[in-house]
Amino acid sequence: MVSKKIAVLPGDGIGPEVCRQAVKVLEAVATRFGHRFEMQSYPMGACAIDATGNPLPDETLDACRAADAVLLGAIGDPKYDNDPSAKVRPEQGLLRLRKELGLFANIRPITAYDILLPHSPLKQDRIQGTDMVIFRELTGGIYFGAKGRTDDGEGAYDHCVYSRHEIRRIAHMAFQSAAGRRQRLTLVDKANVLETSRLWREEVREMAHQYPEVTVDYLLVDNAAMQMILNPKQFDVILTENMFGDIISDEASVIAGSMGLLPSASVGAEVALFEPIHGSYPQAKGKGIANPIATILSAAMLLEHLELNEEAALVREAVDEALNNGVLTKELNTTAPYTTEEVGNYIAFWI
Amino acid sequence: MVSKKIAVLPGDGIGPEVCRQAVKVLEAVATRFGHRFEMQSYPMGACAIDATGNPLPDETLDACRAADAVLLGAIGDPKYDNDPSAKVRPEQGLLRLRKELGLFANIRPITAYDILLPHSPLKQDRIQGTDMVIFRELTGGIYFGAKGRTDDGEGAYDHCVYSRHEIRRIAHMAFQSAAGRRQRLTLVDKANVLETSRLWREEVREMAHQYPEVTVDYLLVDNAAMQMILNPKQFDVILTENMFGDIISDEASVIAGSMGLLPSASVGAEVALFEPIHGSYPQAKGKGIANPIATILSAAMLLEHLELNEEAALVREAVDEALNNGVLTKELNTTAPYTTEEVGNYIAFWI
Ligand SMILES: CC(C)[C@H](C(=O)O)[C@@H](O)C(=O)O
Ligand SMILES: CC(C)[C@H](C(=O)O)[C@@H](O)C(=O)O
């Protein structure tokens, strides 16, 4: 029996409804195993701006720091999207949270579930058996470098910066992951153009000696964007910097047939954060059509992070059960769709 | 009857063999229409480094400047790829050529040929009818900003910079293209994170008033990487900055079923450059298996640029003829493949 504090950040759009189902599943796990999960919700994103003027209120940040793990729904609202000059934007909350919590590694497993192959835009034989993990650097690069306008107002700049230290700490994680999987690591970069990419290659090449069992490939990002579609099965562990990781991991998500299935973990220092890779999907808000599985699988990753492996395995089994029995929202089950809540109930009940 | 000077840069790997076929086709056009095309070859890329130590020798640059148009094969050699610290690399020649000739717009049409749908990794219904043009900014952004190592040797940086002027000149081209097509323009950026992207949005939003017939969408690059695969038919004209364009346009190329079919034009000042989008593919060098069609279609774009529209149309017809009759290299015709030269001969003969 364990006792854990989980800060829940439901966020915007469909965030709250998918989070509710994941919380329900975590509660079912707690009951079944006799654990105590103290789960409390805090505002972040557009809802936090509306309520406090700040996308990441101090209270929210403090609660995350004090928690054993953070579960996030999704953030973002169209009313901020089309105003690039807005001084306060929902994303700033997420970016600041990543930085403040030191979440330097975003981990995204991409799995092509057999039962969902018909839903993928890719031909079945290209993707069947795809099983990769993408390690995206999350607190460096062009996201966090100096940015601004030139003095004459005629230009803008964004600086991409990386240190050896930033590269090494996530590269070690990726190497270790590869060592425990199919022993292949692919570094995605643009070493023929960028100096930061050349630094990544240098470091990874040097570190490779420490992991002799891992075969390392180097792939230019433009080529990676093609290979991801042409032959995704070739990948085991992909390691890449922040901006390329943002693009490549979202691209990879289409393989699975639905974004609604893909979880992610952001780790680094003590507290880790778990969230579905999909966005806040405001058009679907409140309609009961949002797929809660990505958030529920994020909760499974959260359990693993807390070393509750048996519990995590049970959540995964319950999700498989829903997949195998077609207990799915309408993007995956057009003939007899289940609602967000029904999917959550089914999975929680199974536990 | 016209007389034109075309500088040919065959480059490395399969570059020379595919260029040879395109030159043959241009010669057939000249004969048929009584034109005079003065075509001379100059070294650039790895072959130029080997011969002169310089990936873009002065003689080559001067010849390009003096020409009416430039036809390029492909550059790059594996011996330079895995040495990120090499001071001289083939790509530098291409990047410098783009900059020196002021080729600020890279234009890539992406067409899903019906007959090649079975070769695409994407399901037929997703891509049939895809017809888009990507306008990629080519002489700015992170490619050409300051780059280097920090003084302590522990870090590296690449600066991304854009001016309003750089954005406007290519945006005008993209708007004009959209106006003459299906009247949709999609700006791909990362305006929720990057200041340069916010400048792009500001400019494009302002310019949109001048093109009231064109509907403008704004798409974040991570979402664009998904939409490109989920529903490529939604795109008409895509406009984007240099680095995102590199990734997104290569990703888009998989739709067509083969990179061996896709041409590109790089334009800006007087002289324009035409090249297939594929690379130097060194493993295929000298085997007669390289598909010359992308280079031949690049030659067709070159003819259009010289306002030889009837001539260009004839080249396209000849290519269609090859496609429809299966006169194709082995990646597209596995049962009875034709060689690079046979495909070139067929197309030239048809003209
Ligand atoms: C919301 C946005 C700032 C964020 C990012 O680009 O990192 C998102 O796209 C993601 O991938 O988590
Ligand atoms: C060779 C390389 C520098 C180049 C680029 O990144 O621009 C290539 O990938 C391209 O797209 O033409």
Automatic annotation (TrEMBL), chains A, B:
GO molecular function, one term: 3-isopropylmalate dehydrogenase activity
Cofactor(s) in the UniProt record: Mg(2+); Mn(2+)
InterPro entries: IsoCit/isopropylmalate_DH_CS (IPR019818), IsoPropMal-DH-like_dom (IPR024084), Isopropylmalate_DH (IPR004429)
Metal-binding found in the keyword field: yes
A Pfam cross-reference name: Iso_dh
Catalytic reactions of this protein: (2R,3S)-3-isopropylmalate + NAD(+) = 4-methyl-2-oxopentanoate + CO2 + NADH
Its EC number(s): 1.1.1.85
Protein name per the record: 3-isopropylmalate dehydrogenase
UniProt source species: Hymenobacter negativus
